[in-house]
Amino acid sequence: MKRSRKTNPNLEMLIAELKKLSRDNEAAIWRDVAKRLEKPSRVWAEVNVSAIERHANAKENIVVAGKLLGFGNLTKPVNIAAFSASASARTKVEKSGGKFMDILELAEANPKGSGVRIMG
């Protein structure tokens, strides 16, 4: 069976950067996120804003190795990094006082991965 490769050059670059950060800083969390993104996109996490409202604390850093969806409400400020997000999810995060960013932005801001939690 022929193994398929990722065709998105931005995704390939993100995976390589996360692995490099993981090696350089001995942060297993970035290696875990990279391995999740290497899987086929049909099995990536799809996390709703309502799940983040239920499970995350205020001011927490959350990584979604997949897509953030806008179903539900968010009332507390949470910093969320995801590969992609719907427009409604981005607005709900920003209205709650949180910040939406891409995964590499969070990884570079927090190379050790301390205080970061994976959802999905």
Shape: globular
Q: Spans with pLDDT under 50 lasting ≥5 residues?
A: none
Please summarize the sheet with the most strands. 5 strands, parallel
What structural class do you assign from the helix and strand content? alpha/beta
Strand element count: 5
Number of helices: 5
* Proportion of residues in extended strands: 15-25%
What's the assembly state of these chains? single chain
CATH architecture: Ribosomal Protein L15, Chain: K, domain 2
End-to-end Cα distance: 29 Å
Order of helices and strands: HHEHEEHEHE
CATH-assigned fold name: Ribosomal Protein L15, Chain: K, domain 2
pLDDT averaged residue by residue: 95
- The domain tally reads 1
The percentage helix is: 40-55%
Radius of gyration, CA atoms, in whole angstroms? 14 Å
CATH class: Alpha Beta
Note down, in words, how this protein is organized.
The chain has 120 residues and is of the alpha/beta class. The chain has a single domain, classed as Ribosomal Protein L15, Chain: K, domain 2. 42% of the residues lie in helices and 22% in strands. The protein is built from five helices and five strands. The protein has helices spanning 9-25, 28-38, 49-55, 87-95, 103-109, and strands at residues 45-48, 61-69, 79-85, 99-101, 116-119. Strands 1, 2, 3, 4 and 5 form a five-stranded parallel β-sheet that branches. α1 (9-25) packs antiparallel against α2 (28-38). It is globular and about 45 Å long. The relative contact order is 0.20.
